[in-house]
Amino acid sequence: MAQTAQQGEGSGGIDHLLYRGHRQEPVPAWMVFPIIYAGVFLSHWTLLRLPYFWDEAGYYIPAAYDFFRRSALIPYSTLTNAHPPLPAIYLALWWKLSGFVPSVTRLAMCLIAALALTGVFALCRKLMNAEVAAATTLLTGLYPVWFAQSTLAHADLFAAAGTLWGLYFCLEELPGPLTGSLAALCFSLAALSKETAIATPLTLALWHGIEARRKPEQCCAHLRAAAQLAAPVLPLAAWYAYHLHKTGYLLGNPGFLQYNAVNTLHPLRIALALALRLMDITVYMNLFVPVVCMVAAMFLPALRNKDGGLRPRVSWNAQAQIGLVLLSNVLLFSVLGGALLTRYLLPLYPLVLLLCVSTWRRRVQQWGWLVVLSVVAFLAGIFVNPPYRFAPEDNLSYRDMIQLQQQAIAQLLHRDPHAVVLTAWPVSDELTKPELGYVRKPVPVVALENFSIQQIFLAEQLRGYNAALVFSTKESSSLPTFLRWGDSQWNQRYFDAHQDASPEAVAGLLGGTIVWQNQRNGLWAAVIQFPTTQDARLQNSLRVWRAQ
Q1: Which contiguous run of DSSP H or E holds residue 236?
Q2: Are residue 377 and residue 516 in the same domain, yes or no?
Q3: What value, to the nearest 5°, has the Cα angle with vertex 314 and ends 313 and 317?
Q4: What is the pLDDT of residues 55-93, one digit of tens each?
Q5: Domain enclosing residue 410, as ranges
Q6: How do strand 445-448 and strand 25-26 relate by DSSP bridges?
Q7: Proportion of the chain above pLDDT 90, given as a percent
Q8: For residues 107 and 182, what is the distance between their CA atoms, to the nearest angstrom?
Q9: What's the chain's average pLDDT?
C-alpha cells in the first residue's frame, strides 16, 4: 500500500530524506526513533524535574512505588482499582537502574512518548507516504493533550504506544500470520497497561469476522486474523483472575467501580458524554483548526501527480477500520469513566490528524501551509487556556498548578513546620507522602473532598487543624458565563464538576487569615492560618482518595 502511494510522487523533500539507496528503500523506524526522542526530550526539558501531579500522585506513582519496594503487583499504599501492572513494572525498573527521582520518571515517559510517535510515523508512512507521516507525527507531538501527557506517568500513554504499533501491524486489508501475531503482542501490551485498550483489537477482530462472511474465498485468513486480534483478551483475563484471587474484587474496589462504571449508566449522562467525546476528537484544544481545514479541503477536487494520476488517499479499507476504531472508543468512553478525561483518547488523535493531513495533501496544492497553521494553533493551545472547562493536565496548566502548590507548601512549612493542615486531594497526598517530591517528611492533614461551599461548611464541624492550604482544582475563566462551557447543572450532576470557593470565602467562613496567596493563568493557591488550634477530632475528617 505504501509503495503504491509512492508511485508518481517524485523523490523530493521529506520523501527523499526518509528513503535511501538506489531502490528507494524506506529508512527503518528504529533510525527515526532517536530523532523523535530528541525532539520530545528537548521540548520537555523544563518539565523534567517537576514533582508528581494529580492522578500520578493519587495512584500511578504509589502503585509503581509499591512494586519498586516490595514487588507488589497490587498496590497497598493506595486503593487498588484493578488497573493492569505493566506501567508500574516499567517505572520501577527505571528507578532500580537510575534512582527514585521525578526526573527519571519523566525521562522514562519521554521514551514511551517517542516510541508512540514512532508508531504514528510508521503507521502513516505505511498508509500514505513519508511527507504525510512526518507532518502527522509533528502535529501529534504538538497537540496540547499529547504534549502534556508526554512526561506524565499515566497508563494512557503506554496504552497509546501499544495500540498505535498494533495498528501499524494489522491496519491493512488482510494481515499475514506474522504481522497478525505482532499486532496481537502490541495490543496485549496495551491492554496490560490500561484495560480499556482492549476495545481497539476487539473492534478490529469484529471487522475481520464480518469480512470472513463477506468474502468466502478469504474466510480462513480473516478468521485467523480475527482470532489473533481477539487474543489480547487472554492476558487481560489472566490479570483480572489474579486480582480477584488476591483481593476478592474482580474490577477494583467497590467505590472505584461505582464511580467509573455504575454511576455512568444513566441514559442522559451517556448522551451528554457522547456529545462531549465527539467534541474532544474534533474541536478540543484547537483541534478544530485541522478538522475544519480538512472539511473545507474535501470540497476541492483531487490533485494530479506529474504522471497524470490522482494523488492517493488512505485506502477505503483502512479508512473504514480507522472509523470503526474511532467510533468504538468514543462510545466506550461515553459509557465508562466517571471523569471525562481526554487522555483516555490519546490513541485517537493521531488517527484524526492522519485523515486531516492526507486529505490536505490530496486536495490542496500548498498543503504545507495548513500544517503550519495547525502547528501555530497547537502551540497556542499548549500555553493559552481555552474558553471552556478543561483538565489542567491537557496543557501546561498542570505545570502552573504544580508550581503554585510547591510555593504554597513551602510557605506553609516556613510559617509553621508543625502545622496540621486542612486541604483537599491531591495536596493531601502531597503533604503526607514524601516520595511525591513536595515534602521531606509527612505533614498531618485533615482532608476535604474539594473546596466547594458544601465542603467548607463541613470543615466548620471538623477540628484539629490550625492552617489550611486551599487551591483551585480547575482554571477560573474570566470570560462571560455564556462562553464558559461545562459549568451547567448537568455537568455538576453527571461529571463531578464543582465551583471552588475563593480563598477569601474560605477564610471568612472558617475564621482564618490569608497569610499568602498567588495566582497564575487562572489558577490560584492560598495559605490560611487560624488563631487557635481546634480540639483534636481528626477521626471525623472526610478523606476521599479517588484515583482514576
Answers
A1: helix 233-247
A2: no
A3: 125
A4: 999 899 999 999 999 999 999 988 888 899 999 999 999
A5: 394-540
A6: unpaired
A7: 70
A8: 26
A9: 88
Query: How many domains is the chain built from?
Result: 2
321 and 299 within one domain? yes
pLDDT surpassing 80 at residue 494: no
Distances (CA, A) of 264 to 340, 382, 489, 496: 11, 30, 16, 11
Provide the pLDDT for residue 14.
62
**β-bridge pairing 25-26 and 19-20:** antiparallel
pLDDT in tens, 321-373: 999 999 999 999 999 887 889 999 999 999 999 999 999 999 999 999 999 99
Domain boundary among 384, 408, 436: 384
Distance CA 375, CA 369 (A): 10
For residue 390, the number of C-alpha atoms closer than 13 Å in the C-beta half-sphere is 28
Q: Is 128 exposed, middle or buried (0-12, 13-18, 19+ CB in 10 A)?
A: buried
Instruction: Determine, yes or no, domain membership for 545.
Output: no
**Block residue for cell numbers 510555593:** 407
Same domain, 380 and 409: no
Q: Cα(538)–Cα(336) distance, rounded to whole angstroms?
A: 34
483: pLDDT strictly greater than 50? no
38 Cβ contact partners less than 8 Å away, ≥ 6 residues apart: none
354: Cβ contacts below 8 Å, ≥ 6 apart = 120, 123, 124, 127, 128, 132, 136, 314, 322
